Amino acid sequence: MSEHESESTTLPAVREPDMVRLAEELVASATDRGLALTGEGGLLTELTRKVLGVGVGGRDVASPGL
Predict the structure, then answer these.
(1) I need a labelling partner for 41 at 20 to 30 A (CA). Which of 26, 35, 57, 65 fits?
(2) Is residue 28 part of a domain?
(3) Rounded CA gap, 19 and 25, in Å?
(4) Would you list the DSSP string of 9-66?
């Protein structure tokens, strides 16, 4: 463990089948709703913004290039 990690902040590994299932559900939902997967307003762009926002304490993340 590095000096920046501690047992309390280490997340358990996500199982590969769970990640595949989640990805399939996200893509199916986006497709059903007519959303693009990439580009402005697309699934990956918006999901990245949401995940980063949660990671920085719930702030809105609106970064050029995302």
Answers:
(1) 57
(2) yes
(3) 10
(4) GPPPPPPHHHHHHHHHHHHHHHHHTT--SSSTTSHHHHHHHHHHHHHTTS-----TT-
pLDDT of residue 31: 95
The whole-number pLDDT of residue 56 equals: 81
Question: What is the distance, to the nearest Å, from the Cα of residue 14 to the centroid of all Cα atoms in its chain?
Answer: 13
How far is Cα 15 from Cα 53, in angstroms, rounded to an integer?
23
Domain membership of residue 63 (yes or no) is no
* Tally of domains within the chain: 1
Residue type, 25: E
Residue 54 is predicted with a pLDDT of: 87
Domain that holds residue 26: 7-55
